[in-house]
Amino acid sequence: MTLTAFSLLLTGVLLNAVAQLCLKAGTTRVGEFAFSTENIIPIGWQLATQPYIMAGVFCYVISLVVWIQGLSRVPVSIAYPMRSIGDLISAVAAWYLFGESLTAQKMFGIGFIIIGVYLVAKS
Questions:
Q1: Structural domain boundaries enclosing 74
Q2: How many angstroms separate the Cα of 110 from the Cα of each of 17, 76, 84, 97?
Q3: pLDDT digits (tens, 9 = 90+) for 62-106
Q4: Based on the structure, what is the number of domains in the chain?
Q5: Is the pLDDT of residue 8 over 90?
Q6: What does the alpha-carbon distance between residue 98 and residue 85 come to, in Å, rounded to a whole number?
Q7: CA 118 to chain centre
Q8: Fewer C-beta within 10 Å: the chain N or C terminus?
Q9: Is 56 exposed, middle or buried (0-12, 13-18, 19+ CB in 10 A)?
């Protein structure tokens, strides 16, 4: 895998993780909700106009473009497992930003995923 291909895939993964974190921040500000016929338009509007939600969607769009560029250079059997790097980034960032739990067991499991990604990338 070339440095360019790796950079594109890693950028796509990072943007995807940022998108998830933005969506979480946005939904936290909107609050817990359930769609029903009475509130689908008001809640939908709140979500659509929430700045963090908009930022998350923007990151997803850019992530998609970058990811497609990476896929044009690397077999999907190597590229797709690399998305798991986002698990580590998201877990640590969610702990730091939102106070979510980050147990040793969770980190141990993520460590196994990262080792697997490394092994796949080297194959």
A1: 3-122
A2: 15, 21, 8, 19
A3: 999 999 999 999 999 888 888 888 888 999 999 999 999 999 999
A4: 1
A5: yes
A6: 19
A7: 19
A8: C
A9: buried
